[in-house]
Amino acid sequence: MPMQTVQDLFEHELRNMLAGERTLLDALAQMARESADREIRKAFTQHRKQTQGQIRRLERVFRMIGRRPDASSCPGIDGLQKEKKTFMRQRPSDELVEYCNIGAAQKVERYEISSYENLIDMADKLGLTDAVELLEENLQEEEAALNTLKVFASEFDVTDEIEAEVQSRE
């Protein structure tokens, strides 16, 4: 069926985000397992729990608009996952994997933030006040997660990696 209205686009993007959030459950669990740093592992685990709540909110929005909460696929999140798999084929050090996961998670958060901002705008235009509130909760959690990741990235110690690089050049 051709997409003709903002309502059609809203439902399409809603399915997209539901698929993305469901996909991220596994990715967050994997990043937590790959993390040696207790605080980073805890952050990934905590955000996974938040993601479960975000999925429930998205499912509620579907019910509000009289639709089944079915997910299609999320090409944006799928592409970011493919990027990580390509990186992992290079057999990076554990420390580099952890640093990469922080950066990859920031990319995901930015994607989700933009997606939720668009969904909120469409829901507002469609007069879906209750949906706006639920989507804003998801947005706030994504923004908080991004801010946490920024702190981890700025504090990440890459001294060992730099020393190894220098030694390999000598």
Brief summary:
The protein has six helices and no strands. It is mostly helical and 170 residues long.
Give an overview of the whole structure.
With 170 residues, this protein is mainly alpha-helical. The chain has one domain: Ferritin (Up-down Bundle), CATH 1.20.1260.10. The chain contains 6 helices and no strands. Helix 2 runs antiparallel to helix 5 and helix 4 packs antiparallel against helix 5 (129-155). The longest helix is centred in the middle third of the chain and has 32 residues, at 94-125. It is elongated. The protein starts with 5 loop residues before the first helix and ends with a helix.
What are the segments in which pLDDT stays under 50 over at least 5 consecutive residues?
none
> What integer is the average pLDDT?
90
Main sheet attributes: strand count, strand direction, barrel closure? none
Oligomer: single chain
User: What's the helix-strand series?
Assistant: HHHHHH
Structure summary, number of beta strands: 0
CATH architecture: Up-down Bundle
CATH topology: Ferritin
Overall radius of gyration: 18 Å
Shape: elongated
CA-CA gap between termini = 62 Å
Output the CATH class name. Mainly Alpha
